[in-house]
Structure formats: structure tokens, C-alpha cells
């Protein structure tokens, strides 16, 4: 993140730089207005398709690329894969709707760090971008439930089976690692987890790295999904550990 320009606040707060990609001009304008209303966020580039999104990221090197799933030409999923491969320092957050669940698995595999609903609360959008910019993963409760349903099946028996499998999978983790995983599931950054647990951010980073390695997870979003499956997150749609 860059520092705020001189004269715009004495604290020189870091500014989250965002590239916004959506082929619907009016929707893009609405999201830009929401983001621009926050003095800590700057929209540095816009794109109407995936290829333009990659080019805007190449030009501006933003903190976050906020990318729609369905766009003409190169879609948001291909753009996500290209951005995370070429510019790993830029986090990709996916703009989605309730009708696009089928794209979630590929977006996760492509390295997306967050999912936000186009029809969601603007405050959730801001909070999500801030969490991702700070190193966290963002899954609103609604999106988290749909991600899990898409990846794991929706029947009651299937949910119980997946919940049991998830709890068995996290069995080798230490008590502290489970605490960290639960907070990753809440979308907290390393700094926020450190504050919550009263430990050093560097220690949290070590724990997160260990969790990802031991559980063979590609990123924090997958870790968050597993935390929901295992019942570690309040309101998770799976039976809690008994």
C-alpha cells in the first residue's frame, strides 16, 4: 500500500490501491463510488474485460484487483489466474452473484483471496478489501456457505460427512493452530489474529504457514473454507465438533 499524499491527513495512513474490472459500466461506476467514498481506498485503474484487467494490474501494480467473474473475451477466472501467476503481490478479490457458484472452485484454484457479492452491503465490501489488503482472506457468511455447498454438496448427510472429514483432517493441528485456523476462517489478517491472541504477528505467520503446509492447502481462502467445514467458525453450516 502507498502512503497518502501530503496534506490529506497528518497520519499518512496507507492507501489501498485497487484495480476494478467489470464489463457493466453502471455497476463499475457504482462500485467505484463506494470505494472512492473511503479515504483509505483509491481506484487506480478500471477494466471492462479480463485482458484489460491484467494490463491495468501490470501498469499500476495495485494492492487488490477486484474482478468480475463473467466478462467478454478473457473472463475473470482467466484474469485471476494470470494476475496471481505474474503479480503475486496483488491480491485478487472476486465479484460474484448467487448464480455463479459453479465458478468458485476454479477461482479458488486460481488463487483468489476473497469473494464479495455484487448485491452485498457496501460496508462488507470495504471491510473485505481492508482485510485482504492486510493479508487476510475475505468470505462473507453468505458466500462462505455457497462456496462450501458448491464444493462439498448440500444434503444434510453430505454436510455431516464433510464436517466429520474436516474435523478429522485438522486433527494433527495443535490447539494454538486450531485457534489460528478459526480466526483465518473469520477473515482476520495476521496482525488482527496476533492482537486477538496476544502473540507476535511473526508467530501468527509461522502458524499460518504450518497450517497450510500440514493440511495441504493452497491459500488462506481454502483454509477459511476448511475452518467453516470443521465447525470452527461461529455460524458455520456444519455440525460443530462434539
TrEMBL record:
GO terms for molecular function: DNA binding. It comes from the Bacteria. Residues 166-231 form the HTH luxR-type domain. Pfam families: GerE (PF00196), Response_reg (PF00072). InterPro entries: CheY-like_superfamily (IPR011006), NreC/VraR/RcsB-like_REC (IPR058245), Sig_transdc_resp-reg_C-effctor (IPR016032), Sig_transdc_resp-reg_receiver (IPR001789), Tscrpt_reg_LuxR_C (IPR000792), WalR-like (IPR039420). The keyword Nucleotide-binding does not apply. Coiled coil: none annotated. Keywords: DNA-binding, Phosphoprotein, Transcription, Transcription regulation. The modification 4-aspartylphosphate is found at residue 68. Residues 17-133 form the Response regulatory domain. One of its GO terms (biological process) is regulation of DNA-templated transcription. This is DNA-binding NarL/FixJ family response regulator. The lineage of its organism: Bacteria, Bacillati, Actinomycetota, Actinomycetes, Streptosporangiales.
Amino acid at each position: 500500500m502507498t502512503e497518502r499524499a501530503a496534506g490529506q491527513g497528518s497520519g499518512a495512513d496507507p492507501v489501498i490501491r485497487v484495480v476494478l474490472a467489470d464489463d457493466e459500466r453502471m455497476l463499475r461506476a457504482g462500485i467505484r463510488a463506494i470505494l472512492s467514498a473511503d479515504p483509505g481506498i483509491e481506484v487506480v485503474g478500471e477494466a471492462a474485460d479480463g485482458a484489460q484487467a491484467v494490463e491495468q494490474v501490470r501498469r499500476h501494480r495495485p494492492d487488490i484487483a477486484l474482478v468480475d467473474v463473467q466478462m467478454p473475451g478473457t473472463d475473470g477466472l482467466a484474469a485471476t489466474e494470470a494476475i496471481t501467476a505474474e503479480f503475486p503481490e496483488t491480491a485478487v478479490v472476486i465479484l460474484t452473484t448467487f448464480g455463479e457458484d459453479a465458478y468458485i472452485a476454479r477461482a479458488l484454484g486460481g488463487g483468489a483471496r476473497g469473494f464479495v457479492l455484487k448485491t452485498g452491503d457496501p460496508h462488507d465490501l470495504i471491510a473485505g478489501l481492508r482485510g485482504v489488503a492486510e493479508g487476510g482472506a475475505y468470505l462473507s457468511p453468505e458466500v462462505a456457505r455457497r462456496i462450501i455447498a458448491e464444493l462439498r454438496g448440500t444434503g444434510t448427510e453430505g454436510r455431516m460427512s464433510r464436517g466429520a472429514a474436516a474435523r478429522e483432517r485438522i486433527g494433527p493441528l495443535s490447539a494454538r493452530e486450531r485457534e489460528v485456523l478459526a480466526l483465518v476462517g473469520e477473515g482476520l489478517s495476521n496482525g488482527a489474529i496476533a492482537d486477538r491472541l496476544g502473540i507476535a504477528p511473526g508467530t501468527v505467520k509461522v502458524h499460518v504457514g504450518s497450517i497450510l503446509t500440514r493440511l495441504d492447502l493452497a491459500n488462506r481462502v481454502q483454509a477459511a473454507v476448511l475452518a467453516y467445514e470443521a465447525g470452527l467458525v461461529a455460524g458455520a453450516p456444519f455440525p460443530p465438533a462434539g
